[in-house]
Amino acid sequence: MTGPFLYDAKRTLTSKTVMVAVAAMVLLSLAVLPDFSAGAAPGASGGNTSQLFVYYNSGGYHFVGFAWNQFGQPLSGTRFDVNVTVPNLSPNVASGSDVSDSSGEAEFTVAVPDNYTYSVSATATAPDLTVATSGTITPFSSATPPGASVPLLSDLPQEVFAVVTDGGNGTARDILVSWAGPDGTPPVGYKVYYKFVFPQCQTSGNGGTSCVGQPQQPLGQTNAKLLGTMSSYVQVFHVPQSETNFTVTTGVLIGLVAPNGTNVVAITPGDSARSDPNALIPVSSLYPSDSLTSAQGSQIATASFASIFGLFIPLLAIVGTYNTYGKDRVTGILESVLAQPVTRRGLSLSRYLSTFAAMSAAIVVSVAIVDLIAQSFTHSFVSPSIVISSTGALVVELAAFIGIAMLLSHLVKSSGTLIGLSVALFLVIDFFQGLIVTIAATILQISRGSVAYYRISVALDFLNPAQFISLVETYFTNVVRFVGIISTPSFSITPQDYGITAPAIVLTGALWISIPLVCFLYLAIRRD
Questions:
Q1: Which of 374, 402, 198 is nearest to 280 (CA)?
Q2: What is the number of other CB atoms lying within 10 angstroms of the CB of residue 146?
Q3: Which of 50, 72, 264, 378 allows an S-S link to 236, with CB 3.0 to 4.6 Å?
């Protein structure tokens, strides 16, 4: 005959609430798929996301700006600001600005006398207030003809050619070309040519590798292939078909040729350093690998353990514990169970251990699923030390919240109060860690972003069971990251300098398991 302890444990393990919580925990593991999928399709690299051209005539200096997103689509809301330094005027700086419209274009004029010695400071600020591109140059020379368009946000020809993500295939790349014709007119009829080259590479004395490409002659119909013909200021072209014999040092030369046969990038006036007439784009930028490295997979897995599992385990623990113990406790059902040959200690431990066992098994399965997902994308499992330590941290968090939820059931007298108090506790310590840090820093008059501020953040991390997984993540990644609605900015640290050591983590975990459990058992045995 099954004993009361085993019967009660079996009843708890097979309850619908626990089974639903376990299923929810397993389903949470699938939430990492978008992160791995996004990581397996790396963002486009090489090239800016805006360009600003200037030309001059009797009306002053005229600016035409263009902005685009990662797919090369027009981007509105990018602000272009320029300051033209004019030594003989007072004040000696003339300014102008405009914001890109729905077509991604901005246009404005700074009315100052023509003088090729003026310097221009230009800045492009994206809609999210990120400075996309900036630079200060003297764009014109004495030989620059009036009306000639000069790119301001390009220190090298490469920046006239950007690599963007293909709109129809997130793993493919396109080449974006931006240019303005004479007097800022669209570059209709300008041709874009390309050529694969194989740079000669040699290892330097310090172990580095330097590569020098073949002599870059202006590209044209006789020595290159046509990529396409421009009909607008900003135009996207599909990358050329890759050659089967290229290596990691292979590059693709890109050149822009005006209708009269002149290579327009090569003749940028006023900058003798621009001796190469074409852009050299690495093949790795145009034909990226569609697989993640094992290190990237470990980073994604570690972040998911802290952000997804660390955020929802407390909620699942509270809900599961309420239905397996708290509800029976406040409604008096446990008293009828105690009429059977079972002690208060035995009943309390059976409910605690059975709830803990079921959800711990769910954590192990969920972590294993994440590990399998990582292996499918990176062809390598997550580091065993990260898997084991993260699983242990999540189990600690689970045990802490089960103990806390059972403890609360002995401090209130009604189901409504227990539910409200549990939810409030979950929201405060799981979502508002950043707010707590800010309040503590304000009371102590510590400025945000200072070393003392970060020390408070880490100290409160030790005092919050919902952030225990973050301690483990920090130990392995050297980055402090908080999860919640009001977040504290992530920052890099040396964990040992902030007290995050293996013994400290083990001791903190042991305390978070034992203190709520001991307090719960004391109340369950001695006060009821």
A1: 198
A2: 12
A3: 72
What DSSP letter does each residue of 272-285 carry, written as one string?
A: TT----SEEEEHHH
Written in H, E and C, the secondary structure of 411-472 is CCCCHHHHHHHHHHHHHHHHHCHHHHHHHHHHHCCCCCCCHHHHHHHHHHHHCCHHHHHHHH
CA atoms lying within 13 Å on the CB side of residue 328: 18
Residue 114 carries which side chain, given as an amino acid letter?
Answer: D
Please tell me the distance from the alpha carbon of residue 221 to that of residue 455, in angstroms, as a whole number: 63
**Boundary-marking domain end, from 248, 271, 286:** 286
Range(s) of the domain holding residue 383: 4-39+293-527
The predicted model scores a pTM of: 0.56
CA distance 230 to 189: 6
Pairwise CA distance, residues 16 & 38, whole Å: 35
Do 237 and 300 lie in a common domain?
Answer: no
Token look-up 């290229």 returns 246
45 found inside a domain: no
Q: For residue 34, say if its preceding peptide bond is cis, omega within 30 degrees of 0.
A: no
> Within 13 Å and on the Cβ side, how many CA atoms surround 410?
19
CB 415 within 8 A of CB 330: yes
Residue in this structure with the two tokens 């600016």, named with its chain if needed: 63
Reported as a pLDDT band with limits 50, 70 and 90, residue 267 is very low
Backbone angles phi, psi at 334, to 5 degrees: -60, -30
How far from the centroid of its chain's Cα atoms is residue 51's Cα?
A: 25
Contact 429, 465 (CB under 8 A): yes
E strand intervals along 336-495: 479-480, 491-492
The reply to whether 376 and 490 lie within a common domain is yes
- Least confident range from 61-70, 92-101, 137-146: namely 137-146
How many CB atoms are located within 10 Å of the residue 449 CB?
11
Q: What is the pLDDT of residues 300-324, one digit of tens each?
A: 788 788 777 877 888 888 888 888 8
Find all residues with CB under 8 Å of 457, minimum gap 6, and list them: 437, 480, 482, 488
Name beta bridge partners: 257: 191, 263
- Written as six digits, the tokens of 422 are 């549990």
